[in-house]
Amino acid sequence: MKVIVVGCGKIGTTVVSSLAEEGHDVVVIDTDPKVVENVTNIHDAMGVCGSGTDCKTLKEAGIENCDLLVAVTDLDELNMLCCYIGKNLGAGHTIARIRRPEYNTENIGFLRQQLDLSLSLNPEMLAAREMFNILRFPYALKIETFSGKSFEIVEIVLKEESALTGVKLMDIRSRLKQNFLVVAVQRGDEVFIPGGDFVLRKGDRIGLTASPVEVQNLMKALGIESKQARNVMILGGSRIGYYLARLLVSVGNTVRLIERDQNRAEELVSLLPNRTVVINDDGAQQEVLVEEGLNSADAFVALTGMDEQNILLSIFAAVNKVPKVITKVNRQELIGMADKLGLDCIISPRRIAADVVVRYARALENSQGSNVETMYNIMDNKAEVLEFNAGGDFPGIGVPLKKLRLRKNVLIGGIIRDRKALIPSGDDKILQGDRVIVVAAGGRHNDLSDILS
Amino acid sequence: MNRRMVIYRVGQILELEAALLLIPLAVAAIYFEWKIVICFVVSAAAALVPGVLMRLIFKPDNQMMYAKEGFSIVTLAWILLSVFGALPFFLSREIPNYIDAFFETVSGFTTTGASLVPDVERLSHGILFWRSFTHWIGGMGILVLIMAIVPTDSGRSMHIMRAEMPGPVVGKLVPKLKDTAKILYFIYIALTILETVILLIGGMPLFDSIVHALGTAGTGGYGIKGDSIGGYNHFLQWVIAVFMVLFGINFNLYYLLIMKKFNAALKNTELWLFLGMIVVSTTVITADIFKVYGNFGDSLRNSFFQVTSIMSTTGYSTADFDKWPVLSKDLIFVLMFVGGCAGSTAGGLKISRILIMAKTVINDIRQQLHPRSVTSLKIDGKPVDKNTIHRVSTYFLLYIFIIVAVFLLISFEPFGFETNLSAAVSCFNNVGPGFAVVGPAGNYSAYSDFSTIILSIAMLLGRLEIFPLILAFNPSNWVNKNK
Q: Chain B 136-155, CB below 8 Å of chain A: which residues?
């Protein structure tokens, strides 16, 4: 598929990296020749130097026969104009980053319609949503849902010895009498797609699939705290902080938002519902955090503009026994470091936004031969979860799963049949019309039959 | 530096060379030259074994590649390529001295076409084919060939492409590097086949047609006759001359033509400057040598052929320009520096560099007249990056230094000023023939081993455009404290 990415900032680069790795023909446009050279040096993409709203530049990048135009420059207006021009010059689909809150109201639908946008991307909003989901189910590092919300994939860390550790995976299910499947394990830097004789250890980060109800039951059975976070402290009143506070307050949580800049703090007070407490002080001072009640908070979310500060303050919060700590880290290399320092719940807005674009690109390809319904990255992007529609041409239809010869590092994590979740065992079969959830580490899977060796 | 990655990639190249050696092997078999066949088998095996070992032992866990890895891979690959490529000449005893064989191979891969074989017609078919085939491989570049056929896992191969492809600015034709490499080779192969067919139609024997097409495509210039192209009929000479022009043009323009973007292709300044220089030089030389040949047709043909041959840095000849009047000789000498367009298989300084330098000079002069004026250097209507301009100037300085150095290093040879200077210039610019002893009728066999090595290095420097070689042998590159 031919994709043009306009703007090579944080999100642009991440999108280019993912799309180029997926094997798409990527052309990048940026006004800064240095940036263009850098991106094309590192990724297998072609660069065009110029403005995304310049017809000549867009034509040089091949807008006439491009399938997808992604405009992710800093300026919302430029993105919108770029997509509008691009669409009229022949781009198949357009995605614009629109992140200013005044556009992201009920009017966004109208804007999208008028500009003929396929998707509008608000990374901050997406990040806030993801954090909000996690705060509702604090035991999870990440939760993603599949078709009809009948299935969830949940990432958790085994912090202590429990019923899960020290036992072969194939024995756990019968012992716990719970219906779930461990689909991926991260130990150190390595990610495994475990087989039945895999033994979990303390400290492993695991991904498991189950229906939402069973996830709750399982957590109870394991004795893992599954209480919703009620009292949240947010550090940094950026756009993400604002969106997150709004979401949390709307379901009745207590939110304390710490913002250093006085003008911004005042602005936030006027924007947010009354129940939000906005504190104007430097949250980088640990004393301020303690004074404002860090110890009584159920959750701490570090959202300042500096990754390093977020990491350090999160460690401080974790040391102070805050049950749930969420850290915003944008730079890929720091994510790995934060992980090593013991912070397990890390949110990267650029990664989330890039994932949305890649997911959209996959869905587009759907109509062009690929069969992926939804796609999520788990385990720090070292593994993927894909949802396929089992068509009649899949050679494994009606064959018991244990007789299917799957590729290495591929696992069938679940089957959705008639909107019901089914945790498969070796005797189950894939029937036509099923939605099959596949977990894979490495390799590219466009079609369900790609999982067979 | 990621040494494992460098060695792994170079191993890949050696394996490819082993495979490529099978083609001249087949040619030798067709002509029942069994002794030569054995030489090629041994050479292929000699390249294959270290290639496989390097690839298996040094399989890198870390695939990271930066500019310096790119430079190192290209440099090492080209040197080892020549080391093993020289084996067939040496083993067959057709070039009994290994250093001479190495010179002949470097001259082949760098598309110089400077030969030290006194009597080419004595060589066997297999060896003659390999000689010309090295031109073809070296013309577009073997690493670009690897990119086109071997699946690469990293997007960072652009560094390799940039190090191997000639010209001040190397870009991609299409988003994917692999596709770019494939398109370039497709155009290259298509043009080569086209030339072979036209030569066949014009009455050249099949073997000669293929060998000359390969030599023209790489802008190399190894002939298989004592008088190069002079013995073939006039039609064939015109065909080869026209194809030398075609292979001196930036391949990106052919891609634009295929994509039916005629306007963009025809608006290329470099192309028109290249063609303009050919027309002007041909006219001047035709007028100048009219008194030698006495008729317009011969003068025009010989003048056009020699001009295109030198401009495209091919080095075929139909006439001994060493015997021409001084004006023509001087002009030919100057044209040796110029070379073809960037992104072609030709060597030399490249038209686009000359264009950039000329415009820099004009801008500078204007700036001195109007000290407050702001200048911008544009080519084809697009501003040229300051870094590029700077790099072009540095390149030109190094270019002059190297010519001087090579000239001084070989000046102890007793052949006189004209021979030595033209040998240095001709080899460094990948042209081939020079003047006097190394003129179109002569060869490089009179040079000592020391000088042949110096000239081999000069050819490599010229083909890889100086920087990769110098950077790869920068010791700080290879120091790695952690290992």
A: 154-155
